[in-house]
Design a protein that fits this description.
It contains 10 helices and 9 strands. By secondary structure, it is α/β, with parallel strands linked by helices. The chain has a single domain, classed as Rossmann fold, CATH 3.40.50.1460. A 6-stranded mixed β-sheet has the order 2-1-3-7-8-9, with helices on both faces. Strand 4 and strand 5 form a beta hairpin. Helix 3 packs parallel to helix 5, helix 4 runs parallel beside helix 8 and helix 8 packs antiparallel against helix 9. The protein is globular, with a radius of gyration of 18 Å. It starts with a helix and ends with a helix.
Length: 292
């Protein structure tokens, strides 16, 4: 009975969220929409200082080496599972692919004075900062987004209200900065909407769900969503690249959803051949090091 009540609550929340979180008209016209009044309120000197600290900590790239630069974004402020999932994802990914430097954007009361907000201006600034230090032909951006979401994209829960970060905007920001090699992982309901705008030969895109379904596990008291747990905590291990980890994660999630009588979320994956080949030596080196 408790599982059924939890499922019903999740489904009710998802429906309410879809109705409440509508993309404003200005966001539908361009890839990078203008700031709303609520967003502009938090695009201030304090945020600039927090972002400056993160940017100044970025390490320079090493010529002849594939450096991995990471940006992690936890968009929902009132549930710590997204903050914890971001931290866990970067930690585990860093063990498999050495992360040269990272920027974290977090909406959470406990980190308000330590990290920049997960806002659209800060997202664009983070991408610009990474693009400024990386070798865009040689290096790779690892981008992890986790939050609630709907068919318009993930939600950024700012003190002034909800703001969407759409697939179109993410793609436009990355294109504007000329970042070629990208691993983009999105943990949210309906996150399959990010696949088509971002997929190409130089990009890996993994999502917690397809374009029509919710994902699960975003409850208070959890450290991971189902997708984050399955992909990072259970599957991304020495000897497994992103494709192998994704395949294993899909099987785990399907089993968990069947156990809990949830409608399948149907995680999606797109694996650009050029990037898979580029990352292969890094995964192989880590597997060899672990074996020895």
């Amino acid at each position: 009975m408790r599982k059924m009540q939890c499922k019903q609550a999740i489904q009710a929340f998802a429906c309410a969220f879809i109705l409440a979180f509508a993309v404003p008209a200005w966001a539908q016209k361009t890839g990078i929409p203008k700031l709303s009044a609520g967003e502009a309120k938090y695009d201030d000197a304090r945020q600039a200082e927090l972002m400056k600290r993160q940017v100044e900590a970025l390490a320079p790239q090493t010529s002849g080496v594939t450096d991995i630069y990471a940006i992690g974004l936890a968009g929902w402020a009132t549930q710590s599972v997204f903050r914890d999932e971001l931290n866990g994802a970067l930690e585990i990914t860093g063990k498999m692919l050495t992360i040269t430097s990272s920027i974290r954007l977090i909406n959470n009361a406990q980190t308000y004075d330590a990290f920049p907000l997960a806002s659209r201006p800060n997202f664009a600034a983070a991408v610009h900062a990474v693009a400024s230090v990386m070798n865009k032909e040689e290096d790779v951006l690892f981008l992890f987004l986790t939050s609630h979401g709907n068919r318009d994209g993930i939600a950024l829960q700012l003190p002034s209200g909800l703001v969407p970060l759409s697939p179109k905007e993410v793609a436009a920001v990355l294109k504007k900065e000329g970042i070629k090699n990208r691993v983009v992982i999105v943990s949210s309901c309906f996150s399959g909407v990010y696949v088509k705008p971002l997929a190409n030969e130089n990009t890996i895109v993994l999502t917690a769900a397809d374009t029509k379904n919710t994902s699960f596990g975003c409850a208070d008291g959890r450290e991971w969503t189902y997708f984050g747990d399955a992909l990072f905590a259970q599957s991304l291990k020495p000897g497994k690249d992103f494709k192998a980890a994704y395949t294993n994660a899909r099987a785990l999630i399907a089993a968990w959803e069947k156990r809990d009588r949830y409608k399948p979320s149907n995680p999606q994956g797109s694996f650009g051949k050029a990037l898979v080949e580029k990352l292969a030596p890094l995964f192989e080196a880590r597997a060899t090091a672990k074996a020895n």
